[in-house]
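Revision sheet: structure tokens.
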Amino acid sequence: MYSIKAITSLTGLTAETLRAWERRYDCITPQRNENGRRSYSQQDLEKLKLLVNLTKNGHAISKIAGLNCDQLRHFQHQSPEQADNKQTALFNQIIDALQHYRIERCEQLLKRALLAYEPLDYARDILLPALQKIGLLWHEEKINIAQEHMFSNCVKRIVLTMVNNLHQPSKHNPSMLFATPSGEPHEFGILLGCLIAATQQYTCYYVGADLPGLDIIDASRHLRPNLVVIGLVKSPPDPQTAIQLEQLIEYANTSKTPIWLAGQGAEYWFEQQTSNSAYCEYISDIDHFQAKAQQQPFFKR
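Predicted:
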């Protein structure tokens, strides 16, 4: 076993970077002795060396942290440009199919890509960029609103199918409730969060988008999830949304039910707050969500 001092010396990582990788990306899980000090295995050292080499060569840590050593060795033979080229080719095929209203072809391409990815990577590297590209094309008037809606519904069908296939609800598992408040019709953030939670064996309550805050609270009181996840895209949030957020935070404080706020609107809202609630936390992105979900004290590994 290796101490943190030995690991930093052998890998070239700083202690701060090592802890950040552990905390945010859950790339390794060091053991702790009776004094609480970290110790690392030979496999941990091997993986960290691979991660360091790959990040030096341009690979994003967020995209490779969840891979095992064999998968990381495979990545050593593939440049970031090669991976990006494959992704670009896929998106170009999707766009071409969508512009000709071939939605079945879009779905076929997305499902084929799914075979090559773990759920988190698929959500982060395929679905989110694809949705962003299609949204940009609509703003540039290169596709119309009907085509944009067709693609969004296609992605939603795929994600819900994945959630249903992965989801194994049980009263013995920790649970999450997913929703967005009134004025927030965008649901893909919470959909993808639901997908990631399902892969980690959480019982998922997908309440939906654009709901009154009091209805979200009522659902939480009855379902009693361990966590409530709220998506906020609009930045700044609408005034009515801000009022509902205050209601949700008050509920979190009185019921001691943690609430996670995610999205650009959540980032803006947190920046405006002069005091923080112990039961409300900002989630910056899907990798942060995945890492936090794994770190919860009620999560059974």
